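Components:
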Amino acid sequence: MEESKQLEQFEAKIAAGQKIEPKDWMPEAYRKQLIRMMSQHAHSEIVGMLPEGNWITRAPSLRRKAILLAKVQDEGGHGLYLYSAAETLGIDRKELLEQLHSGKAKYSSIFNYPTLTWADIGAIGWLVDGAAIMNQTALARGSYGPYSRAMVRICKEESFHNRQGYEIMMHLAQGTPEQKEMAQDAFNRWWWPSIMMLGPSDDQSPNSEQLMRWKVKMESNDAIRERFIDRTVPQADFIGLKVPDPAMKFNEKTGHYEHGPINWEEFFEVIKGNGVCNAIRLKARVEADKKGQWVREAATAYAAKQAKEKAMA
Amino acid sequence: MNLQEAKFEYLLRLGDSSLIIGHRLSEWCGHGPILEEDIALINIALDFVGNASALLTYAAQVEGKGRTEDDLAYLRSEREYRNLLLTEQPNGDYAVTIARQFLYDVYTFFLYEELKTSKDETIAAIAVKSHKEITYHLRHTTEWMYRLGDGTEESHKRMQTALNDLWMYTPDLFDMNEVDAILINEGIAVDLNKVKEAWEKRVREVISEAKLEIPAANIKQKGSREGRHSEHLGFLLAEMQYIPRSYPNANW
Ligand SMILES: [Fe+2]
Ligand SMILES: [Fe+2]
Ligand SMILES: [Fe+2]
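Structure:
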């Protein structure tokens, strides 16, 4: 079949709300963009295990420890699931990880901020997972079958993450003065990065009409950001935390909150690799990979021996 | 020592061991040799924290002084902890972690098997639930014993070294004192000599199947029953307990 004909059918399928499956024909640009997005997403899940993993050994109660373990386990599972989904596009996990380790592939810049106190665990669940949900519920409506299904499954768990984070913050905000201060401090530090993690504003990142048409991108960054802010500001009010944006106000006419200017310079610095933890996070991943090499080699060697024995039996 | 005191001690032994080995496993989070293992270790750590939580809750109840599971976990010091020496040993390389876990899993597999029929209903119920988890843990660590023992030359060497280094902490697993005597008499606890027999048999089988050798038993470390630990425990507790100890009036 001619390529133009294939493209026509591909686009018609998407327009009709059908999913594209791994064996279906797809334009190269579609495949590339999806690999980029899905691997970035998978990398974010596993790099994200580091800042939170930091606090498992220091979680202040056994209940909090168990919840945090369960959450971080979920994140690892998301990573695994997303790598497998990305593999349906004809690239393997090993190659994707090499791209992460060489710095070629990106992951969410949010994980380049440090987790300094226990309240950061609350702030991450509430804000970071909260922002991720906004993005992911949109992506769940995307056209690529494996990615969209992964998003549906992952979103369910993300809402548990979001709730446990908010619950930590609520608890701290109602606790001793020191706890309240800890909560406000974490909120101050995580608010802007969470807002920025949803991507540059629309005027700086014109949405490709094609990606929208192909349902790779479902909503503009600013639209997702607005939903996140609309949902989060009343939650902050409810537990008595102050949004660290003096310009934030509610617009009665539009029914939306309006935020003050965002420091995009900081955002692009972190993206470029100049955030507080960029080097530390990447190094941790690279080192884990290096230290694990003999283990993986042993597993492979053992499996080969077993297969040989089986063949001989 | 009366029955209540003996039971409290016994529950601390079980609960503390779970808590401490779970803590060690959770230190791997994000640093495992492969993503699947990262997830498995977190999952196993979670089982241990859940088990510790159930045991310490019951310990606090048995003690009857109004303490909670968190008081017991976070506000006891090194000498009051009753976890096995083996459980507090640092992670080392992956071979050390697997060897430590394997030796411990075989132990709890046979111990909890017996505890399922404990005359104490709460202990029996906890044992039933935990034994299912332990069965899975043991399968997991046994597979890794084979892979690492019979994998490459390097992995074999690392695995043997790990076993050799940890072996001295195994007598501690089977140490018994007055606590055991009282509880065995009541049908609550298990005669560890019986567990030891089963443990030795299984450990020998797996070690030989993994092409490894049983280490020489030159040094024998004991002391956990009296709260005499290795130096490692203090650091571990300092990290684990620092928040509740820094904010005595807060709850989390
Ligand atoms: Fe996730
Ligand atoms: Fe999450
Ligand atoms: Fe489990």
